[in-house]
What we know:
Blueprint: H1 24-36, H2 40-53, H3 58-70, H4 74-87, H5 92-104, H6 108-121, H7 126-137, H8 142-155, H9 160-173, H10 176-187, H11 194-206, H12 210-220, H13 223-237, H14 241-250
Helix pairs in contact: 1-2, 1-3, 2-3, 3-4, 3-5, 4-5, 5-6, 5-7, 6-7, 7-8, 7-9, 8-9, 9-10, 9-11, 10-11, 11-12, 11-13, 12-13
Amino acid sequence: MIAAGLMLFLGACDEPSISRGDSYDASVKRADEARLAGNPDTAIPLYERALQANPEGIEAKLGLGQSFLVVGAGSEAAAQFRDVLAKRSRDGTALRGLAGALIAMGQPVLAEQQVDAALRADPGDYRALNLLGVSLDLQGRHAEAQANYRRGIELAPDYGALRSNYGLSLAITGPPQEAVAQLAPVAGSAQSDPRTRQNLAFAYAMAGDLENALQLCRRDLDERNAQRQLGYYMQLRALPPELRSAEFRRNPGLVASRGGA
């Protein structure tokens, strides 16, 4: 039996105090600052307070949806993005956000439809291409996913989510050496995060470089869990690509990065 994949959780933050006199704009500004600083648990009540002042506030709904995505609340995020799309059917941020929410809810086919709409509105939307790749990978359509990641990388070579997801997809299907080549620069950059490092650890394991794989696991996990994670990767390596793909779809603990909305 294959072990469960890596799961990452965000710690809770204290709810900020907000005076009754705060305006919609001021609340949204503070919420945006908290969200962009990586504090969604601080941002969420600020956006909710902004919406009490202006229930139709598009900026607050988009920010709230993005914050819900970060904490894994896919259905709550989807509700915010659908509210925006009811008024602005071609809003790229809302279309991408809804696609990300649908991915989080395990509905990659519906996510693909939203991304297609975003790309019809803006064929050069590299963030949408990233989400399209994720939705295709989660359907087992890896060759199509990789083609879209490459298109996105041509448009935005410094957007780390594209390279991280492209590398993960290549690690699933092979060749793993190309996966390592895509992932190593991102994992060593300022954009590096635990997800990208674990994607690289997975790619190293698929290439048979268990020493480097274990060292990367240890960056984000204690020794017991690092060894457990490496064991999971080794079990995946023993599978043929089609079964590795099926395991990935069942257990996206090796989950791809949605990137910014």
